[in-house]
# Entry
Amino acid sequence: MTGLFHDIGRFEQYRQFKTFKDSESVNHAGLGFRIITAEPVFNCLSIAQKRDLRLAVLFHSRMKIPVGLPFTTASVCKVLRDADKLDIYPIMLSHLTPGNATSTVVTLGLDPENRVSPEILDQVSQGRLGEYSAMRYENDFKLLLCSWVYDLNYDYSRKFVLDNGYLD
# Structure
């Protein structure tokens, strides 16, 4: 269920602001959390299921999952974060491959110039997640995608990335 609803905030975000860039609009995960909290359709879930869904949606795009979550909630968050990355890789790589059709909405309006921001390069070189706020060029987005391997929670996810050539 988290896989289906984790980006529910994107629809309202795009409707209102015509962008997927959280820094220029609204945090889509927080918006999704509020939508799920308010929607009566989710009242059929148990208290624990609704908690796990709401928190997984809220935390799926953060740099880190907060410590101290209940085991089940943390597990749901980890699975969702890995699945979200595995889903996004082929879409973004398609849009960031020279010669392919692209959309500035998808590439967040980043400069297509063949450059890399030193800040993103430093983050990834140090084994850290790249930060969206440091991106200036489309190549920065490519490096940010590479940095996601540092945040994959399961061996299967890492193997899937390698087997599908997402880092080639």
